[in-house]
Amino acid sequence: MIKLFGGGADHPMRNPKEAKRILDALPPDDVKALEELSHWLESVSTVEGFKPQERAALLISVDDAAQPRQRKLSRDYTATARPSKYQENRLWTQLHEYWKQAALAFGRMLDAAAQAPKSLDPKTLALVATRAMRAAAQQVKWQHMRYGPFDPAVWGMLNKVYAFCEARGFAEASLVPYPSGSESSPRLEFVKALMFNASSPDSLLATEVDLAERVIAELAPGFAIGNAPAAGLIYWTDLARAMAPLRIVKPPEASAGLRCFGPGTALASLQGFVQKVETTRDLPASLGTTKDPEAALDVLRHLAMLWSPEPPERKHARHSVKSRLTIAHGFTGVIEVLDASGSLDFDQKAVESWVVENVSAGGFGAIVPQAKSDWLRVGALLAMQPDGGNNWLVGAIRRVNRTSAQEARVGIETLSRSPKVMKFRVRGLGEETGVLLPAAVLGSGEVAIALRSGVYPPGQNLEASIGDKEHVYMPQGSAERSEDYELVRFREMVRES
To answer: For the chain, which terminal residue's Cβ has fewer other Cβ atoms within 10 angstroms, N or C?
Structure first.
């Protein structure tokens, strides 16, 4: 089984009055409080001498005390106004650590229950198992918030706990895992975790990951799971392995632990959400509110594409290569290396060397050898110069997977092979420096312009003088917004001066 428990000496929380005093006296700082609660989870779950029912009740009380604090810190992390680098790291570290300790603590309880089957009553056992899976799933989520690295042991635990629930016959047991939460079950917690990871969160921003999780929680009752491949069951996992779920490309080998799953009736509900937001520009109330319906639509469409019975097709053939790619990042860094003045006096610290693994007409797959920079995230703007070339391309990061603390693999979409820094005018608002991005793929008819974040009035034309001609750019759709730039697609018209 899970084999996660340890031993220890007498414990201050063995006295119920002292345990209540400790929980009532937690620091007002939520990060420090969550840190203390993490330590209490670890110590309560490892010190000997507690009776099983007593230990379980105490762990549940500690976990209950953490919930309002972790919810507030999660909101702070994904707030519109991004926290400072120090605060962001502090929030992430403690949230991830809390869920790690919660999963381990409840896992130890299940391990002990497996050795002594009558040590916990069935209701408590189901609650402990459900919280164990919720905590492990939250570990997966917070690892995705930073694009990894990912710990396969988390999936080993999730799969083993769900197998334990099935073996004990309470996988379908309905319960309310947390006092202020909604009804769930071990099965529901398991398929939520599976569908979340199967929905490519490595290509989403932190705020988008958070919304995707809420959508998945809302639609989870419609998800389907079975013991063998069947129509609509498009992913699989093996309860006997420490593996993340995979899309079914060919039928997996039959085994006792094989579980196939898919969106079930949730796909139709998701498509209904897409239609509602397209029409009303508002999210359903159950999913919260948003000031950016287009960003919410992007997440909903992303999920709908991934949950489709037909896997997403790669637009362009990919070819393996090994070469170097010089990178300048961020809107300012891209402007500096592309500036038509030809000046070489730009910040060399903003330039990095990456290793290209594969290339296609649509972009690159690359290895980032030193992936410690906090700017490395989905949506980041890049200027790229292939090894041996003297031309710069412009692209955006669309997928990030940190394979270790030092290295990451990224997917880059090429936005343009002939970018140009230009001055653009908006009538009555003066000039702004931007990057003209003729389409990377010939014949697509697209022109995009990257501008500093917050300067473009939605729906307005841009104008620019090129030689003796005036170019007018008419917006086509809404802007793609990132931290330091926004990307708007236009139809270009040319008139004589």
So the answer is: C
